[in-house]
Amino acid sequence: MRPDMLPADHTTEAERLLRTAAQYPEDHEPLLLRAAAHLELAGDRDRATGLYDSLLASSPDHPYLVKAFQAANLWEYGHEAEARAIIEGLRAAAPLDPAPWEIVAETLEAHDELEAAHDSFTTALDLLLAPDGTVPYPIQSLLIGRHRVRRLLGLDHDSRDALADRLNPAAVPLDELHDPKRLWALGSDNPAELQAEITRLRAELGSYRTALSRPFPVAVLHWPARELGELLAAYPALTTEYPSHEAHLTHLEASLRDLASTGTPNLGIVTATVPSYEAFAASEQSSPSHPALLPQYATTLAARGRATPWPPARNAACWCGSGRAYGECHGTS
Fold it and tell me: Domain residues for 264?
């Protein structure tokens, strides 16, 4: 959520994002979250809090994520007790989305609540790590964050620390990156020690920038049953693309698995609606009946931040909306 290349005037950027959100109400949630981030960076935490409150009042798609950002902002804004109450509520709700857990844990860590941060990272991984050992990208940062906090607490390595080491993309091992003593070298008069620390910091920064600059996910369209029915009633030519809703769901999962098997990274699913698709077709001066427009629509939704990472954790809700766990629905082998 936090921008990588930050503009000089965060207030101006926040205003631009607010205007964009007003123009594109279907995308208001990610745009308002980015606007709130810029307001925080501008020091306008009171107004950022108002944006979070407004989002929560509008039944957002990701309420736990909004609450996590709200708690982090409130703590920095001097409202520690309120922030703690929100964090406790989030922990009790046990969301199956890694992002709120990461924000909560890092907020606690930033305020020297290391035991609580470690417990949050660990609880999240207990919920989200798949039994088969697969680690989707959003969960990797939880493992690495937990490793960092355990290093600060002086705890011995466990199996999850070893897994974090294997997933670490930086050239410098995590034990060095997370060594509490490494920053002491910045006060050294020894040029060799200073150069070694600069190398470590560059590696850490490079890894962080790589994560932030990941391309938009390769996104596949998901049409809920009602939306697909409306689409085919209005544009029967698309029946060749979608012979039935069940076939659509099966083909979607199979396509993503095929892409994953070829090593394609950052896979995601975007949920389509008929009004949104028709508006996109009009903006492209094309007919919604043209099948070639469908992948372009999916890419546009992903670029607007509407993609949900695939695959979900096995015990998370299935992407299809059945209400069953992914591992018991489309995630079955």
Answer: 218-328
Distance CA 155, CA 182 (A): 17
CB 325 within 8 A of CB 315: yes
Residues 114, 191: Cα–Cα separation, whole Å: 32
Is the same domain home to 241 and 309? yes
205 belongs to a structural domain: yes
pTM of the model: 0.57
Each residue's pLDDT expressed in tens, for the chain with a length of 333 residues = 333 334 457 888 889 888 888 888 888 888 898 889 888 888 888 899 999 999 999 888 899 999 999 999 999 888 999 999 999 999 999 999 999 999 999 999 888 899 999 999 999 999 998 887 788 877 888 999 999 999 888 888 999 999 998 888 776 788 877 777 654 555 566 777 667 766 766 665 555 555 444 555 688 999 999 999 999 999 999 999 999 999 999 999 999 998 888 888 788 999 999 888 888 888 778 889 999 899 888 888 887 778 888 998 888 889 998 889 998 999 886
Same domain, 226 and 318: yes
